[in-house]
Amino acid sequence: MTAAGNGVRPVPAELGQVRAFWQARACGEVYAQGESLRERLEAQARARYALEPYLRPFARFEDGCGLDVLEIGVGMGADHLEWARQRPRTLTGVDLTPHAVELTRARLALDERSSRLVVTDAERLPFRDASFDLVYSWGVIHHSRTPRPPCARSSACCGRGAARV
User: Fold this and answer.
1) How far apart are alpha carbons 33 and 38 in whole angstroms?
2) Are 1 and 45 in contact (CB under 8 A)?
3) What confidence tens digit (pLDDT) does each residue in 75-104 have?
4) Residue 130: phi, psi to the nearest 5?
5) 20 closest CA partner among 93, 122, 100, 103
6) Quick one: average pLDDT of 37-47?
């Protein structure tokens, strides 16, 4: 918790603009068309997997069954829901923006699932080393000014298993 008590971890000044950009509209939100929230989230997920058909084979969501899984950059939560459906032992997701965390939480709730969701940045993951069996990130690390710190931090968090970033 921050001093303000809102659960949003402070970020360095250079990440403030990035947070503001993605807070205004989550990645893929342009595809979220429909009347209800469920319809919008389903439309976004369909578009995501149609536009990136290589994503599922890379992620291998089924590998998360029974593991402690961390997703870095939950975005609108399409992948996070896929991880949740695999029944991991624990599921944790982080994102730079409260908007993404709210969308992900809503998507999971529509499917009667939950996850530990944290607003933070990939360079300052608030987890002990070797906390997770599998760490996954798609389309996040390349936005970092220097990818080395987030990659090193995600690898440290995944001391027991595989990191897919």
Assistant:
1) 10
2) no
3) 999 999 999 999 999 999 999 999 999 999
4) 60, 35
5) 100
6) 98
What domains, with CATH codes, occur in the chain? 13-164 (3.40.50.150)
pTM summary value: 0.84
* Cβ partners under 8 Å of residue 67, min gap 6: 88, 89, 132, 133, 134, 161
Looking at every residue in the chain, the average pLDDT score rounds to 84
> What are the residues whose beta carbons fall under 8 Å from the beta carbon of 103, sequence distance 6 or more?
26, 41, 75, 76, 77
* Residue 143: exposure state from Cβ atoms within 10 A (0-12, 13-18, ≥19): middle
Q: What was the pLDDT predicted at 58?
A: 94
Would you state the structure tokens that stand for residue 128, as one six-digit string?
Answer: 């002990």
